[in-house]
Amino acid sequence: MSSSPVEDRYVVVVNHEEQYSVWFADRALPAGWTATGARGTRQECLDHIEQVWTDLTPRSVRTSR
């Protein structure tokens, strides 16, 4: 991911259901979401999510199978 502060405008966040999203780096995280450590441009964050979020099924559904 990018290392320039100007380009690190977004962070990748995840919730308790292991669902991913992109959030603004300069804003407080919404309740229930945790930063993953990945950051960069919006597209870089989306690319990262595409690589790591391979099963879109919520965690609670996956574990109840």
The Cα radius of gyration reads 13 Å
Using the alpha-carbon principal axes, give the shape.
flat
User: What is the succession of H and E elements?
Assistant: EEEHH
- Sketch the major β-sheet: 3 strands, antiparallel
Could you say which structural class the secondary elements and strand pairing correspond to? alpha+beta
DSSP strand content: 25-35%
Number of strands: 3
Output the CATH topology of the domain at 10-54. Answer: Rubredoxin-like
Helix count, per DSSP?
Answer: 2
Give the end-to-end Cα distance, rounded to a whole number of Å.
35 Å
CATH architecture of the domain at 10-54: Alpha-Beta Complex
Q: In CATH, what is the homologous superfamily of the domain at 10-54?
A: Structural Genomics, Unknown Function 30-nov-00 1gh9 Mol_id
The CATH class of the domain at 10-54, by name, is: Alpha Beta
Question: What portion of residues is helical?
Answer: 10-25%
Average pLDDT score: 91
Low-confidence stretches: none
- If strands are numbered along the chain, what order do they take across the biggest sheet? 2-1-3
